[in-house]
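Exercise 3.2. Students should predict the tertiary structure of the chain below and write it as C-alpha cells, then compare their answer with the key that follows.

Predict this chain's 3D structure.
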Amino acid sequence: MHEFSVREQAVHLLRRGAGTAETARRLGLPIGTVSWWKHRDLAKRGELPGRRRSPCPHCYGDDLDRPAYSYLLGLYLGDGHISHPKQHRTASLFIACDDKWPGIMDAVEAAMRQVFPTLTPCRVRRPGCHNVKVYSKHLPCYFPQHGPGKKHERTIALEPWQQAIVDAHPWAFLRGLIHSDGCRITNWTTRTVDGVVRRYEYPRYFFTNTSTDIIGLFTAALDAVGVRWKAAARATGATNVSVALMDTHIGPKY
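Answer key:
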C-alpha cells in the first residue's frame, strides 16, 4: 500500500500536466499504479474522456448533410451493403469501388465523412476493388432499407424523410446510383448532310439492377429532372435503363 501523501503528490503532478510515465519515474512508482490514480482522479472530477458517439439525426437530432446523404443513399442502393457479423460490436456500411475509378473511391469516402462527420471511414482491399467502410450502430437509422437477404428479394421503398431529400437533391441521388451500378459509353450515329455522311458521337448512360423497386426509384428521379429514358429486360433478370444527355450533372467515371 502506498501512503496517501504519495498518491496526492502523483495527482498533483498529473494535474499540472506531467505524463503518467514521467510521474511514475519521478516518484519511483509503477506506471500501472499512477495510471489507476489518474483514472480515479478524472472520474472524481467528471473529466473521463469517453468514446465519441456516432451521429444520428433521428436519435440525437444531429445535422445531416442532405446532398451528401442523397449521393450516399444512391451508392448504397446501387452497390452498398450493411453488415453486422456476430464477432463485431458495430455494424458497418461498405460500398464496393472498382480500382479502375480511384476518383469515385475518393468521392465515396468524402460523402461518408460528410454524412458521418465524427467517424473515420477506411478502405479494405479486395481483388480488383476496395470496400470503403464506415462503422456505426446507427446505420439502420440512416438506411432503413437494410434487412435480411438480398435487396432485390425484398421491398425497397424510401421513407418520407428520405424521399424529401431525394426530391430536393435528385442529381446527387442519380449520381450515386450511376457511380455504383451504372456506366457511361460513347454512342454514335451517322447522318447525311449535303450529300456527305457524317458521324456524330454522344454519351449514353446505362443503369442495371435486378431490383424492380430500385429501378423504379431511379426512373422516378429521372422523370423528376426531365430526363428521358427507356428500359429493357435482360436475360439475367436485371433491368437495363438507357439514358442520354446527363453529362452536365454526372459525367464519366473517373
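Discussion points: The two ends are 65 Å apart (CA to CA). The first helix runs from residue 4 to 15.
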